[in-house]
Every structure is written in C-alpha cells, then in structure tokens.
Automatic annotation (TrEMBL):
<keyword id="KW-0175">Coiled coil</keyword>
<feature type="domain" description="DUF4124">
    <location>
        <begin position="29"/>
        <end position="61"/>
    </location>
</feature>
<feature type="signal peptide">
    <location>
        <begin position="1"/>
        <end position="31"/>
    </location>
</feature>
<dbReference type="InterPro" id="IPR025392">
    <property type="entry name" value="DUF4124"/>
</dbReference>
<feature type="coiled-coil region">
    <location>
        <begin position="80"/>
        <end position="107"/>
    </location>
</feature>
<dbReference type="Pfam" id="PF13511">
    <property type="entry name" value="DUF4124"/>
</dbReference>
<protein>
    <recommendedName>
        <fullName>DUF4124 domain-containing protein</fullName>
    </recommendedName>
</protein>
<keyword id="KW-0732">Signal</keyword>
Amino acid sequence: MDDGHLIQGGLPVYRFLASAALLVVATQAMAQSTTVYRCPGPNGETVFSQTPCAATGAEELLIHRNEIGGTLGPSPGYYEERAAQERRQALQRLDRLEQDLAEARANAPCKEFSSGDLRTLRIRRQVVPGMPREDAVKSWGAPTRINGTQYAYHWSSGISAYFYIENGCVRTVQGYYGGRT
C-alpha cells in the first residue's frame, strides 16, 4: 500500500473513515445533528474532526440524526381498519346479491311453491300461473298437443283447456282440467 492511502500512524484511510463515522455517531447519538469537519491532511489525505481545521479548504459537514422510529410492520390500527374495510365490502356485496336475487325473483315467471302446496295443486288437478312446467303436466297429464309454448288439452266433453309456458313455468292458463268450469 502506498503512503497516500495511509493516515498518520499507519492506519488505512477507509478504516479511519469508518472509525471517525462510528465515533461521531456514538458520541452524538442523542443530539439532533452534529457538525464534522473534513480537512486535507499533511500528506493530502482526508481527515475528519469535530473542530474546525486550521488549513484552508476545510469543508463543514452537518450530519443529521437519522431515526425513523416505530417498527417495520404495519402501523397501529392497520389490521383493524383493514378488517373493517373488508367487512364493509362484504356487506356491500351481500346487499348487491340480495338485490339481484329479489330482482330475479320478481322477473322470474316461476313462483316459489312449497312441496305441500304443489302436491295439493296436483291432487286438485289445478294449474296456476307461476307453476313449474313439470308440475303442471303432472296435474293435468300428458297434453293432447304441444304448439311451441302452448300445451293444449282437448277433453272428451269437447271442451279444451290450455296453458302457456315461459322459461319453464306456466305464464297463463285458459280453462280447467277436464273442461269443468
């Protein structure tokens, strides 16, 4: 190593710089900032000091205390706020689903029947609007003829009855089972 990289006493420059920086940090840990002077040494090397240099070309360095504080994790209340936000979003999604379901039910041609109500309608041979197609056919039996969405029943009495299917459910009923009124 040449003498240009040595500080007086044979200490390498990088070790001196690290020692000087450590000394500054250790002695000034409680201060908000400290002043350090960078001066040219007798052989042209850089020397750091807490006192101003006698030589010309000295540079004053202001070193600020660098404390971030806190933790590296999320801020206090982060998880609670995140959970509250997720709850609000879940409730909004649930509200939208309930609205969509209510709208679908309102627009659906089929009504909701309990199994007991459907059984009673089939026993009485009744077909009503909103009834599922399969249950209407079970109530009146096989149709005489199917014309697209029209299920036609021509009874032996000479009277006819019809029901019309839309999206799998009875939309309209004309007449009664067996032609009775």
